[in-house]
Amino acid sequence: MTGPVAGSNPFRFSTKRTEDGTGLVLYEYRAYSPTSGRWLSRDVIGESGGVSLYGFVGNEPSQLVDKDGRAAVIVIGGISVTVAECALAAVTTCLVIPACRDALIDLVRAGVREIGKCIDKCRPKRVRCKPCVPPAGTTMYRIDFVPPSRPHWPYTGTHTHHYVVMQSPVTAPVPCFCWPHKTGVTDGISPYPGEIPYVEPGGGGVEYY
Q1: pLDDT tens digits, residue range 127-182?
Q2: Co-location of 95 and 168 in the same domain
Q3: Angstrom distance (rounded) from CA 183 to CA 195
Q4: How far apart are CA 170 and CA 131, in angstroms?
Q5: For residues 65 and 52, what is the distance between their CA atoms, to the nearest angstrom?
Q6: Which terminus has fewer CB within 10 Å in the chain: N or C?
């Protein structure tokens, strides 16, 4: 919502009530300041929520949720996990039992892997051009022998055509297209240094990565 309607709606960040006068977000157990990014009072569950008694979801409000101001952030297998107070005792007890701990770590890591796969699938793919064959920038020559070719203006005898391989940008209407761009003609058999015999350019096209 935008405009006056948004201003009149007190339930905004995390669906909690926002005080217009102070800008504070009122959770069930304490108030949160979006300006400073922290709670205004100590964590009601003490150090069970982590060393910082004023931190908000491990400083990751775009990734984690604290529904009432009492969520704890614990580390399982090197991965930070936010759990509610009612689950904290069960999780911490599990972590001291080797078999339970290992199973929990495997579960968390498997979940993180699946989330990573999902994010990778949903992430907009970048696009680039496949290389031309021969590569863009390659200079080429083609000798027009007279005869068997018929004399034509301005060269009445054998002459040499010069080309460079070009490729359209990925943003072009026809993206990543490869073609031979003619750069000139010289009299006689006169390829320039570094030129290769003429071949029809191929390759190109778009690829996503």
Answers
A1: 899 999 999 999 999 999 998 888 888 888 999 999 999 999 998 989 999 999 99
A2: no
A3: 12
A4: 12
A5: 16
A6: C
